[in-house]
Amino acid sequence: MLKLQVTGKTILSSIRCQRKMSTCSSYAFGPYKIDPREVFYATPLSYAMVNLRPLLPGHVLVCPRRLVPRFTDLTADETSDLWLTAQKVGSKLENFHNASSLTLAIQDGPQAGQTVPHVHIHILPRKGGDFEKNDEIYDALDDKEKELKQKLDLDKDRVDRGIQEMADEASQYRSLFDC
Which member of 59, 118, 120, 122 is catalytic? Predict the structure, then answer.
């Protein structure tokens, strides 16, 4: 009987989580509308979503809910929540992907490689040997991918994914979080 009650609580918690994620207000990433199925974690001030063109397995983005182009434009509460969300998401994804480290990066402004005018933190679970030279990950995040194509040849493997693939990934990640 106790096991049934615990299982019932787990099911109820899961239902609440799915309801919260599916009925929340819409998400935007700069000028782009984000399908709620791509979002796997959210707070009142931030959200985490899967990446359309991931560099590595588990490469996700954490964004403020408010459309804010530059990091310095965030409020203190948004800044705190954004980094606490990144910390929580990073920890879960590092374990999920059996990684040994994380890269967290912000490209703040066009000259820094920011292509979408909305603050976002890239979170990439890292494993030994995922890039020949460890710091090449930053070049790969940069807007100058065309220059790097010959050096890293990323574009052949980095293609836009469909909504179903992204929704499936987000669903897996959503299950990592307690609601």
Answer: 120
How confident is residue 1, by pLDDT bands cut at 50, 70 and 90?
Answer: very low
Question: How many C-beta neighbours within 10 Å does residue 70 have?
Answer: 14
CB 60 within 8 A of CB 75: no
Q: Is the pLDDT of residue 12 over 90?
A: no
Please give the DSSP secondary-structure letter assigned to residue 71.
G
At position 78, the amino acid (one-letter code) is E
Mean pLDDT of 19-30: 67
Cβ count near 89 (within 10 Å): 26
Q: Strand 101-105 to strand 39-42: parallel, antiparallel, or no bridges (unpaired)?
A: unpaired
Q: Which amino acid is at 112?
A: A
pLDDT in tens, 132-155: 787 788 777 764 333 323 333 444
The token pair at 89 is: 């998401």
- pLDDT value, residue 138: 78
Alpha-carbon distance of 6 to 13, in angstroms, equals 10
- Catalytic (active site) residue 118: no
